[in-house]
UniProtKB/TrEMBL annotation:
InterPro entries: DUF4295. It comes from the Bacteria. Pfam families: DUF4295 (PF14128). This is DUF4295 domain-containing protein. It comes from Sungkyunkwania multivorans.
C-alpha cells in the first residue's frame, strides 16, 4: 500500500534542469558563472542567448 502512495506523489513532480553558463564581463574581462533552474526544453534557448 505504501508503494501506491509513493507512486502517486511522483507523478505530480516536475522535472527540472540546472544549467550553468560562463559569461565574460565587458568591464573587467573576467569570467563569471550564471546558474539557472528551468525545464529541460528551455535549456538550449537560454544557453544560446547573450
Amino acid at each position: 500500500m505504501a508503494k501506491k502512495a509513493v507512486a502517486s506523489l511522483q507523478t505530480g513532480s516536475k522535472r527540472l534542469t540546472k544549467a550553468i553558463k560562463m559569461v565574460k564581463s565587458p568591464k573587467s574581462g573576467a569570467y563569471t558563472f550564471v546558474e539557472s533552474v528551468m525545464q529541460p526544453e528551455e535549456v538550449n534557448d537560454w544557453l544560446n542567448k547573450k
